[in-house]
Design a protein that fits this description.
The protein is an alpha+beta fold. It has three helices and ten strands. A hairpin with a 4-residue loop joins strand 2 and strand 3. Helix 1 packs antiparallel against helix 3. The longest helix has 25 residues.
């Protein structure tokens, strides 16, 4: 009877591992890009930010990885309404099309889900960090909506506001990693159970 119980436990480990691999088998976008304003940089305060109503431009870092279509000097259309009530604790914003990357026919669109003001010095600088989802509108490529984040760094020189944005997708463990970790965790639990029964 002890052998039968052992077999049942190991079958459970194998099935659970396969299920987790299947659920994690998603194709996420991986890459980064940087951009700055063309002229007006908008405004910032201790608890708010307003991006400019004109296009931003990719200059300081062209797209890497899956974001390579975002070439140097391609434009980015930002959400330009004032966002207030910000603090160092991320607040839920849920703003679709917060950034629209116009290269390759507007292929990539970023939907904002949270925003925080991570630092502030009156009349000098402020930084903001946002998180959300990057969408690839070319569905034939098979990319799933991908977790992404950005850092927006303002600085004020001579009364003029300037900023730059560093945008990245968020690293996701490989599907094989999920399966391996799940298998190891469940296997350890099963072996521990068997040892406890043996010594009981």
């Amino acid at each position: 009877m002890k052998n039968m119980g052992t077999k049942k436990h190991f079958v459970a480990v194998s099935v659970a591992s396969l299920v987790l691999v299947g659920e994690a088998n998603a194709a996420f976008l991986v890459g980064s890009v940087g951009f700055i304003p063309l002229s007006d940089a908008g405004t910032y305060s201790q608890n708010s930010v307003t991006l400019p109503n004109n296009n931003l431009v990719v200059v300081n870092q062209a797209g890497t990885g899956n974001l390579s279509p975002l070439t140097q000097f391609s434009s980015v259309t930002p959400y330009s309404q004032t966002i207030s009530g910000l603090s160092s604790t991320p607040t839920t914003e849920s703003i679709p099309s917060f950034f629209v990357f116009n290269a390759a026919g507007g292929r990539f669109v970023f939907n904002l889900s949270s925003l925080a003001e991570t630092s502030y010095n009156p009349g000098s600088f402020a930084t903001f960090r946002g998180t959300g989802t990057l969408i690839d509108t070319v569905s034939s490529d098979g990319y799933d909506p991908s977790p992404a984040s950005f850092t927006l760094a303002y600085n004020t020189v001579g009364g003029l506001n300037n900023f730059n944005v560093t945008f990245n997708t968020v690293a996701i463990p490989e599907p094989a990693t999920y399966g391996t970790l799940a298998g190891i965790g469940l296997l350890s639990f099963t072996l521990g159970s068997q040892l406890r029964r043996k010594h009981a």
